[in-house]
Structure formats: structure tokens, C-alpha cells
Amino acid sequence: MTNIFDQDLDPNSANFTALSPVSFVERSAEIFGDLSSVVHGHRKYTWAQTRDRSARLAAALQSLGVARGTTVSAMLPNTPEMLEVHYAVPALNAVLNPLNTRLDAALIAWQLNHCECAVLITDREFAPVMAKALDILKTQFDRSIVVVDVCDSEYTGPGDQLGQYEYEAWLASHEPLSKLEGPQNEWDAIAVSYTSGTTGDPKGVVTHHHAGWHPCMFAPSRSSAHLRCHARTRRQSLLRCPHRSQPHLQRPRKHAGWH
Mind listing the domains of the chain with CATH numbers? Predict the structure, then answer.
């Protein structure tokens, strides 16, 4: 039996907004647009530039058919591109799969197949292991995916380009989306991550948009700057977070995801 509180109180654009981390970059670009967002070696971006680059990446991914439920995998150290992927992919209601850079080719291929990856964005540094993983993905799982290569300005070591697109040229060829929307339903998946599979096949964890938004707002912190460093090459980016009021040094987190 219905009551008066079940009548004429359905969610609508006037009384409900799905919570998602995507909203942070739009707000930061609007309010803190001229402040630094990322410092990565010789590269420095403001929040307006980070938002623009994320919106260009979203437009580029959209041109490939990336949409709700599409998996985009990222084999990247903590560089500006990794930050942009974290905004662009969920803005399309797609699902981000961050890969653990310490895994071998067989485990990476298994994960790419299991999460039904459609697009891979990979740093040139990881070309040797990713070339093997893509070969296993094709020969053992009969899956071919679109590959986008990141040629990081701070990496001067070896590494071939494996894919059809080079990240910077790809972004430059697309106009930014006018708005990074995010999901209609905050229960939609935002990411899938995996354990390393030491006791069998990797186990996966699916996170939804609300779960991504909540800790960003309420997790305790002591800093407005996040220093993240790649363990092997020591490449690092300083990520400035305007919504955090006190200084905080955050260690890199191992990316872990469903069985």
C-alpha cells in the first residue's frame, strides 16, 4: 500500500544528481581554472587545461564507440595521462581497468580478456610486456583491442609503439566534449581492478561511481598535494587537489578487481 511519501517525489534533475568523481574536474576547472593541477617534470597544467585534455580524451574514446559498460584498460605510471584517464573514462559511463605494472604478460592478457577490454592506453615504457600480453590475448583468447600509445615526455628509455594511435596526436585531433557528464545512475560501474592471482586466477573488484566519489569527499587527509611516484623509473607527478585544505603525501596504491 502506498503512502503520501511515495507520490510525486520521484528523482528528477531538480532534486537529484548522481554522485561521481567526474564532477570534481568540472568544478575545479570552473573555480580553480588558473591554478596548477599537475606538475610532471617539464610539463605543468592548470585545472582548466586538465579538464580540456580530459574532455578531448573523452571525445576521442567516444569516437571509438566507448560508452556505458565499455572497458578501457590503462597500463600507465602515475603521469598526467593516468589522471586524465580517470576523468575521461567515467565521464562516458565507461569502466576503467587500471593494470598493475608489476604483472607478467600472461596475467595481464587474462585480465584484459576477463574484463572484456575494448581499448588499451599504454605507456611506451611497458611495450615489452604489453606486446607479449597482446599476442597472448589474440592467440589464446581470440580478442583484438584498440591500442593507444603514450610517449611520456619524462621517459627517455626504450619501448616501441604498439598501437594505432599516439596519445598526444590523438587528443589534438578531437575537440573537447562540452561537458563531462558522468552517469545517470551512481550505482553504475566506474572501475574494475584485479588481484595478482597468486593462488589461482585473479579476483576482480567492481567499484561504482558513488564509492569513487565518497572517499574523495570524506577521507581524512593532511595535504593539498599528492606526490605519486613510479617505483621503477621514479617518474613522479605532483597532483594538486583544491578540495583538500591541508598538505598530504599519498603513497602509490597497488591497483587490485570480480571472480
Answer: 19-240 (3.40.50.12780)
Distance CA(173)–CA(254), nearest Å, equals: 33
**Nearest CA to 16 among 184, 251, 250?**
184
Q: What is the pLDDT of residues 183-226, one digit of tens each?
A: 888 888 889 998 876 777 888 888 888 777 666 666 554 433 43
> Whole-structure pTM over 0.85, yes or no?
no
Question: Maximum CA pair distance of the chain?
Answer: 68
φ/ψ of 186, rounded to 5, equals: -70, -10
3-state class (DSSP) for residue 97: strand
> What pLDDT digit, counting tens, does each position of 34-68 carry?
999 999 998 999 999 999 999 999 999 999 999 99
Neighbours of 166 (CB within 10 A): 15
Sheet holding 146-150, edge to edge: 165-166, 146-150, 117-123, 71-75, 95-98, 189-194, 204-208
